[in-house]
Amino acid sequence: MRKPGWASLALALCGFLGGCASEPAARHNAKVYRMGEPVQTGPLVYTVLDTEWLDQLGDPASPRLPQNHFLSVRISVTNAGSTTSGIPPMTIIDSHGTAYPELEDAKGLPEWLGYIRTVKEAETLHGRVLFDAPTGPYRLKVADDADRENQTSATVDMPLQLTNPQGSTGL
Q1: Measured CA distances, 121 to 31, 50, 60, 77, 124 (Å)
Q2: 63 in any annotated domain
Q3: Residue 64 maps to which CATH number?
Q4: Average pLDDT by stretches of 10, the chain with 171 residues
Q5: Is 29 within the bounds of a domain?
Q6: What is the β-pairing status of strands 85-86 and 118-119?
Q7: Pair 149, 141: CB distance under 8 Å
Q8: 7, 100, 116, 130: most buried, per Cβ within 10 A?
């Protein structure tokens, strides 16, 4: 007669290791996208168009200054779904895993998308979102507006670019 101990231990270990995962594999897209590539999370399709580092916002006479540096990310978001969808706040993540949330107030940023935003079915929004973070390369985490348990997310690689699209430096 065999002892049930080893089989029980192996089964328990498999269950434990599976329970340690932070997100089910089916809900998290492990692929990291490049800037310019469309990224779909649920009904939302994001495209990161460019980034720009800024050392201040607003009127030069009374500028708004960041704690670190402002990172402006120009994106488009299309709703490929059949109902209006919210666009959740975004996060940037550095190479050490430190996360910096999107700023709730980007007053003075041209083309700011706002912080609380929705997109109708078959509609595309274009604009900018803002972060305050040390200068460096980041990954932008985007998601759909499903509840936390069913939410899908993806990341977009944003290499460090110290020259903006117009050819001048933002720092």
Answers
A1: 26, 25, 39, 11, 9
A2: yes
A3: 2.60.40.4170
A4: 45 41 46 96 97 94 95 98 97 97 96 96 98 98 91 95 56 55
A5: no
A6: antiparallel
A7: no
A8: 130
In the numeric block, which tokens belong to residue 22? 């932070």
Question: Which tokens hold the place of 14?
Answer: 């498999």
Contact partners, residue 163, CB within 8 Å, separation at least 6: 169, 170
- With beta carbons less than 8 A apart as the criterion, state whether 93 and 141 touch: yes
- Residue 136, domain member (yes or no): yes
State which residues form the domain around 56: 38-158
Is the pTM for the entire model greater than 0.85?
Answer: no
Q: Is residue 141 part of a domain?
A: yes
Beta-carbon neighbour count of residue 12 at 10 Å?
10
Backbone φ, ψ for residue 10 (5° rounding): -65, -45
Amino acid at 93: I
56 touches 63 (CB < 8 A): yes
Helix ranges (H only) for 20-169 are none
